[in-house]
């Protein structure tokens, strides 16, 4: 046997067997009957056996033809499912995603909701390192709040998911009742944010007549606030995660908020288009796209 049969050969054999006619098979395959006849003759020469008995009443498979028809159906069936199976494999693949430690408890559960068919290998580290890992290919993506504050590496893009407004957590040990300037004056305020705006946030606290006490992580900020009886100024997504029944959340626009972004290589995987709004809503961000 000189070579393997081509897909067109298999489709022709299957069509002839299905219709019992070379002409009808040619019409189904949108080719001329002479072209179909020539292809069949060439296939029979390469196979070394006659595949169909042909006369005025039609075409009937020989013993060799019956075997060829069965094999053709089997092979074409596999080929028809190639794309479907490839898509299914893509949907069940594992992606490696990173974020900073304080956001891990929010980002990874949100990804599970947004991309239920993908398994996420989780990585936590500092934002700049995560961005570098995306650039080198160690990470598929990262969720960080610094994407708009740094120069991203070549071939890497940042896509805003939403804004994480800064709120105020008043623990039971703190008598703060409002975000009025007079309420803040003279107090120590624990601060935490997820981007590089820590100094700016501290400056706004100072402008209210208070003394900022910057914490290293979100959990540290909340624990310090409860221990010392100080209000805590931090992103609301994290604030709500740590909010206890005895705590109070005070909402104010005066502190702004970091922008959480997806950082990924170009071109960005298509599934993020629908996933990002879901991630933003699950985390509780503002300004989230209404898409999906």
UniProtKB/TrEMBL annotation:
- Supply the InterPro entries for this chain: LysR_HTH_N (IPR000847), LysR_subst-bd (IPR005119), WH-like_DNA-bd_sf (IPR036388), WH_DNA-bd_sf (IPR036390)
Can you tell which superkingdom this protein's organism belongs to? Bacteria
Q: Which residues form a coiled coil?
A: none
GO CC terms, sorted: protein-DNA complex
**PROSITE patterns for this protein:** HTH_LYSR
A molecular function annotated in GO for this UniProt entry is:
DNA-binding transcription factor activity
Q: Which UniProt keywords apply?
A: DNA-binding, Transcription, Transcription regulation
Describe the location of the HTH lysR-type domain by residue ranges: 5-62
Q: What protein family is recorded?
A: Belongs to the LysR transcriptional regulatory family.
Which PANTHER family does the entry link to?
Answer: LYSR SUBSTRATE-BINDING, TRANSCRIPTIONAL DUAL REGULATOR HCAR-RELATED
Q: What is this protein called?
A: LysR family transcriptional regulator
From which source organism is this entry?
Answer: Nocardioides gansuensis
């Amino acid at each position: 046997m000189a070579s393997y049969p081509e897909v067109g050969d298999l489709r022709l054999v299957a069509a002839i067997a299905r219709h019992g006619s070379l002409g009808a098979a040619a019409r189904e395959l949108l080719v001329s009957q002479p072209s179909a006849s020539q292809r069949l003759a060439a296939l029979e020469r390469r196979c070394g056996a006659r595949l169909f008995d042909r006369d005025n009443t039609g075409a009937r498979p020989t013993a060799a033809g019956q075997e060829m028809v069965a094999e053709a159906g089997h092979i074409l069936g596999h080929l028809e499912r190639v794309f479907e199976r490839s898509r299914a494999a893509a949907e069940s693949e594992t992606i490696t995603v990173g974020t900073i430690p304080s956001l891990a408890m929010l980002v990874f559960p949100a990804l599970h909701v947004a991309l239920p068919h993908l398994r996420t290998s989780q990585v936590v580290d500092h934002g700049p390192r995560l961005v570098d890992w995306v650039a080198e290919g160690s990470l598929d993506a990262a969720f960080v709040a610094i994407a708009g504050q740094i120069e991203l590496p070549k071939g890497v893009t940042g896509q805003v998911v939403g804004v994480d407004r800064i709120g105020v957590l008043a623990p039971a040990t703190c008598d703060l009742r409002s975000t009025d300037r007079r309420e803040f004056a003279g107090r120590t305020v624990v601060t935490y944010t997820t981007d590089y705006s820590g100094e700016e946030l501290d400056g706004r606290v100072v402008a209210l007549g208070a003394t900022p006490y910057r914490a290293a992580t979100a959990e540290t900020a909340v624990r310090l606030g409860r221990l010392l009886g100080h209000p805590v100024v931090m992103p609301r997504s994290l604030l709500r995660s740590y909010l206890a029944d005895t705590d109070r959340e005070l909402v104010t626009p005066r502190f702004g908020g970091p922008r959480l972004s997806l950082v990924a290589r170009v071109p960005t995987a298509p599934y993020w288009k629908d996933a990002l709004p879901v991630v933003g809503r699950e985390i509780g961000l503002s300004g989230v796209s209404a898409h999906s």
